[in-house]
Amino acid sequence: MLLIVEPYFAQLSVDTLQFLLFLYTQQLNRVSLRTSLIGEEWPSPRARSPSPDHECKTSLQNKNCDDQAHLAFVQTHLSDLLELVLDPEQLSSSGHCAHDSLLSPEALRGLSFLLEGSVSKARAVHPLHELLSWAPLQTQAGYSKLSRAFSLQRLQSWLKDTLTLNPFGYTACLKTGKKLAWAQQVEGTMKRAKIARNTHNAPAGSKMVLMSQVYKQTLAKDSEKLSGANVKLHRCNESFIYLLSPLRSVSIEKCRNTTLVLGPVQTSVHVQSCEKVKVVCVAGRLSVCASSYCTFHMLTPTRPLLLSGNVALTLAPYHTNYPSLEDHMASVGLAVVPNLWDQPVCLGTEGIETPSPAPYGLLPPGEFNVLVVPFEMDGDTSEIPGGLPPPYQAAISHREQKVQAWQRTVKEARLNKEQRKQFQVLVEQKFHEWLLETGHRQQLDSLIPAPTDSKQAAG
Q1: Helix and strand numbers, DSSP H then E, in the chain
Q2: pTM score, two decimals?
Q3: Rounded distance between C-alpha atoms, residue 69 and residue 51, angstroms
Q4: Going by C-beta distance under 8 Å and a sequence separation of 6 or more, which residues neighbour residue 86?
Q5: Are residues 446 and 240 in contact, defined by beta-carbon separation less than 8 angstroms?
Q6: Beta pairing partners, 361
Q7: Degrees (nearest 5) of the Cα angle 285, 370, 384?
Q8: 373, 63 Cβ separation under 8 angstroms
Q9: How many of the other CB atoms lie within 10 Å of CB of 383?
Q10: 450/111 Cα distance (integer angstroms)
């Protein structure tokens, strides 16, 4: 049999031990490999099932947001997890670990996929294999200098005694996280919303911002408190949310009729079970699952990943800027080329690329408009990074020419003062009718400045 592998895929690889652990942990949600292909894998904030924790149950309804379930799963299956990473020669003839089995340093690196920790609560968080390079902990965990390996039995006993709830996870963030103050916010419609952050005390990589049940709001934030955070938006509806800071990752779940304008996202933006959501961002990767009638204005160096269950998605070029955008892009390592926003990969339920029917279309240039971020900020960026593709730039130029022609027509009409007044009233009336018909009235009304002297998107 001849196996033909594309050069790109031939360069890719995964750590075998980590992949084994990844497959094993699918049992947390009792999902199949087929289901994991559409976004319900763990660790990640995506799979579904009720959480026993009251705070998490009332806001996120997601087992992958339940750190207690994570801890219980690892504690219950610890012996199996350790056995999975054993070297084959450490297994008995029956295929199970022996009493005197030893775990190699490579096995610890694999376990670091799931486990990390610190020497004390005040110290930095390290992967398991780095943590056990410290001599006092090596002794407690059963390290032998002679064999340069760990006793499986002693390591398992030490892990059982030291494993604890993730202090930087979803549950802790909801219970003890700080509120996020908004520079732009509509009063009176935030009673059900749950917004929390742990960015004040979490280490890099574990910073988190949770936003759930935001309804009919325009929220804006540009702050160091967001920088490097993993953002989760859940059940937001009829809202306009601007998070104009460099972010680490963004997960958008079960949102409807909402526009999200994001700062550059270092790793990925994952959208699942959303309807009529518009996402505007520069990101390392975009993945979309089980969503319908959503629009994505993207600048991304990788092909968007469209998983199964999507209907009528629209892909479009990135179409906005704000003053600190290019500085934020540089801080997360994203550039303007390559930009593969219009070259998605469409995968079916079997994880195989499906050429038709395509669940997406490209936005027609005639329907394209530039988005203006309506907030004052400091910075030097004044243009869309990388510019627009020629067809879209031509559409914008054509529209600008029509506006200029209209202005000339009005000027050449030589209207008197009363006629100009009547004409202005008529134009404003038509404009307000258009705002109501398109639903843009809410967004404009919510942009009325709050009675403060601060800049709109500051702090």
Answers
A1: 15, 19
A2: 0.79
A3: 8
A4: 97, 101, 103, 107, 152
A5: yes
A6: 314
A7: 60
A8: no
A9: 10
A10: 50
